[in-house]
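#lab-general

N.A. 3:47 PM
ok so I finally got the sequence cleaned up, no stray characters, all 370 residues accounted for. can someone with queue access submit it? mine expired

B.Y. 3:52 PM
send it over

N.A. 3:53 PM
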Amino acid sequence: MIRVLHSVSNMARAGIETMLMNYYRKLDLTQIQFDFLANKPVPGEYDEEIRQMGGRVFVSPGLNPLHFPRYERFMHDLIAGNPEIRIVHAHNEAMGYYALKSAKDAGIRVRIAHAHNTQIIRDYKYPLKMVCKALLPGVATDCWGCGRDAGIYYFGEKRWLESGVTLHNAIDIDRFRYQADRRAQLRRQAGLDGCFVIGHVGRFNVQKNHDRLLDIFACLLQAEKDARLVLIGVGELEEAVRKKAADLGIQEKVLFLGQLPNVNEWLQALDCFVLPSLFEGLPVVGIEAQAAGLPCFFSDRVTDEVLLLPQSCRISLQDSDEQWARRILEGRKGPPDRLQGADIVRQAGYDIDTEAAKLQARYLEMAAHP
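B.Y. 4:20 PM
back already:
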């Protein structure tokens, strides 16, 4: 058996981490085990499940440049003490450089840098991240991405086209397949009967652009007073978003549901899904929403690779709130057969059973050959 060490932020219930768990649950654990390198000292919702499956969660000294020597010593000791770790797979975007550089120095032969996004947030770490981004391809033996645009952004077009590997953000499609009975039950329980329900799933941070989402929804309410906005997720900007909803006078029409284990069920209750992100790789939730048969409205900053259903589209962030609202309301005309969503998503290559088998074979091959 080989072990693959995945470098993550922590194993919270977020997009990258959920994708990894989707794959982990489908592996033959007698051949491959996952371990996780958490770079934030915060327990994650998936930690206990990981341990029950035989995986381990290691907590690093953190991604602080002042602590890099300590980080390298930590990685050296971790790998020396666990020779069954044969692959290090980093999901920290540019900061994955820390794990891969340390793994290289510790003698790990297979080092995968995995691109999940198409931009870097311009926060106080931005200069450091740009340096790490430039160094990242030099410490990676393999460059993977959730899609074309993310791979090109992190590794450059030449390397991506020559050797980049796309790992689909695959899902357990049958969990998301449209269920009319569950839809009716949830809508009744939440007081949403007779409402036009717009949904969004994502962490409350700058990238997800909740600020613009509220503006669009406020505009839409002028034409459809029975509309409701369902927000699923948590994050550092949640209080600011709540305040803006109150300032706009729409707080009673916005449902803040927090972090939920049954997003698949709540997608049934929606009438459409809106993701006006400032940037994205290929969002897992976009695949999940389309598997539930939902019309999806993405910003033009989300890669066009996400468009799987004919009723899904991208809208420019340069378009007005009125234009966004009109496009969303038009999406109600001629409601699609939502049952078709799951089959279309499966045919597009996002079925976790098929993709996990491919990933397992690839890992085993990489571990076996130089």
